[in-house]
Amino acid sequence: MLLYGGLVPSRIHCDTEESLQKRLTVLKDIRKRNPEMVIYGFQVVMRCPNYSSSDEEPDYYGIYGAQIHKAGEVLHKDRLGISHKVLMYPGADEVGLTLISRILNHLYEKKPKIYVKYASEKSKYMPWKRMFEVGFRAGINRRNFPDGSRCFKK
């Protein structure tokens, strides 16, 4: 939002790197005035589907899409040295909500307990399983049995 004004505008922008860097100075100014303030943020990477389909992508994505996605994820995280520090997962819409949940849990010193009961074996796999795992890493305490935890069926 800070750089482009939204997800869709980020896909079609014509901004220069210089103008984007200038917009980031807002964060530097905030940090300078409030050095103890915790600043939460997220970045959405341009669309790179984690599945093999050529419906909305080039033809070769029908065969190699999933492999291209995984290779890109691993290479980018390794190059930046952030493999164990940054969560990467599909779902641009979910990122903001996950971040807000993490902030609220931190502010109120909460660690919600969640037990996930899958409706079928098939439901345990992408996208639900990975999305829940990301949520757990974002500050949710996963339970292996429903001991007063909130239960979500998928």
List the helices and strands and how they pair.
Blueprint: H1 7-12, H2 17-33, H3 61-80, H4 92-107, E1 113-117, H5 128-137, E2 141-142, E3 150-153
Structure description:
The chain has 154 residues and is mostly helical. The protein has three domains: 1-39, no CATH class; 46-88, no CATH class; 93-154, no CATH class. The chain has five helices and three strands, in the order ααααβαββ. It has a three-stranded parallel β-sheet, covered by helices on one side. The radius of gyration is 19 Å and the shape is flat. The protein starts with 6 loop residues before the first helix and ends with a strand. The relative contact order is 0.10. The mean pLDDT is 75.
